[in-house]
Amino acid sequence: MELTSPKVIKQIAEQFDFGFSKGLGQNFLLDPQVLDKIADAADIDDGVLEVGPGFGVLTKRLCETGKKVVSVEIDKRLIPVLDFTLAEFDNVKIIEKDILKTDVKALIDEEFDGKRISVAANLPYYITTPIITKLIEEKLPIKNIVVMVQKEVAERIAAKPGKKDYGAISVLCQYYTNPRLVTIVPKGSFYPAPKVDSAVLCMEVQDKPNVEVLDEKLFFKVVKSAFAQRRKTLLNCLSTGFSCPKEALSELLLGIGIEPTVRGEKLGLSEFAKIADALKTQGLA
Ligand code: SAM
């Protein structure tokens, strides 16, 4: 069954009286080369977790690797469709659940014996950031996360300091993972076609974060404050974020070699770490 054929997709939709839900981000991938790129980047060893199988086009490609595939789908109307489209495979398990309400750690323990798995998904765009944040912040046994997201989101996550796309989400993702853009996917490669282009992003999860900090929560508060008002200087942003007098903050920043008038978007991970550690050791946060 050729799930990359729009004709077949329409036939299946008709057979199961299935209407595509915009609200659930149901834009199904049609490009077989992109499926290969996702499967290759996922570099599956001990199994793969998929989010949102849809009609199963990516699930099928993942099953073809011979590794165990567990796929979490929120839309119960898709369960009988997936039973039909994936009937030839015995290495797949579909779980009907909202990924955001799923205990992924328990799932990995139960389904993969806690081994380090890969994640592969063509993500529903309305919850891209919460899903990625959940997967990287929960410190799960995941080796890499390969996801299709809106092109702009992929560019933001992979952006380096000083670039216009660089922001709090770039720092968050680059703290836990090494992200890279795998390929751009035009909107015409989906059925139904979304309004914007997409990109496949591969985030290699690191054994330990890419920078060491004394207090992770504080580090992320510094990052959030620094990007909260993009046109303001770092000094102003931190002074607002930490309700701290500017004189003391200015002295702290100069003491660690950071210009108080710089904008947050110029700072890399190690500079944010230095600021957070200095705030902690000097008792300002
Ligand atoms: N994997 C298929 C493909 O590549 O064609 C479908 C991808 S489609 C962009 C997103 C899928 O995620 C849909 O099947 C949708 O029902 C499902 N989905 C949406 N929200 C979800 C959630 N919170 N948890 C799990 N699946 C979800």
What distinguishing features does this structure have?
285 residues, alpha/beta, Rossmann fold, Helicase, Ruva Protein, domain 3, 2 domains, seven-stranded mixed beta sheet, two-stranded antiparallel sheet, 41% helix, 18% strand, elongated, binds S-adenosylmethionine
Structure notes:
By secondary structure, the chain is α/β, with parallel strands linked by helices. It has 2 domains: 200 residues, Rossmann fold, CATH 3.40.50; 66 residues, rRNA adenine dimethylase, C-terminal domain (Helicase, Ruva Protein, domain 3, Orthogonal Bundle). The chain is 41% helix and 18% strand. The protein contains 12 helices and 9 strands. The strands form 2 sheets. A 7-stranded mixed sheet has the order 4-3-2-5-6-9-7, with helices on both faces. It has a two-stranded antiparallel sheet with strand order 1-8. Helix 9 crosses helix 12 and helix 10 packs across helix 11. It binds S-adenosylmethionine. S-adenosylmethionine binds next to strand 1, helix 3 and strand 3.
What's the structural blueprint in terms of helices and strands?
Elements: H1 6-15, E1 28-29, H2 32-42, E2 48-51, H3 57-63, E3 69-73, H4 78-85, E4 92-96, H5 104-112, E5 117-122, H6 128-137, E6 142-150, H7 151-158, H8 168-176, E7 177-185, E8 190-191, E9 198-205, H9 216-228, H10 234-241, H11 246-255, H12 269-281
Parallel strand pairs: 2-3, 2-5, 3-4, 5-6
Antiparallel strand pairs: 1-8, 6-9, 7-9
This protein binds S-adenosylmethionine (SAM).
S-adenosylmethionine binds at residues 24-29, 51-54, 57-58, 72-75, 78, 98-100, 122, 124, 127.
